[in-house]
Input
Amino acid sequence: MQNPSSQLVSSGSRLDSRAGMGAMSLSTQRQVRREVERVQTRAIIAGQTEEARAAIANLALEHVGALTALEQHLITVAPLGEARYREIVDSYTLGAAAAVRRWS
Output
């Protein structure tokens, strides 16, 4: 794995001793590299968090859709259970929405 401080930064230049850091003291270069690594770490964590949030939302939507379809089917097959079916699906939906919100 490549050292994060030697990867491309947003300005498009490389952050190493060959590009722009030659005039800095070694101590300042180390500080700059550490800060760049911290920024890159935060960006990686933010990206992974976003991936997890999307996966949770996608799964919740799939489940709510499937449960809603089942609810609709059961209402036609056994209409006396309509209020119960709706209560169960609505309860699941609220819980799934809360889980997605926790990741926001």
About this structure: DSSP finds two helices and no strands in the chain. Residues 26-77 form the longest helix (52 residues).
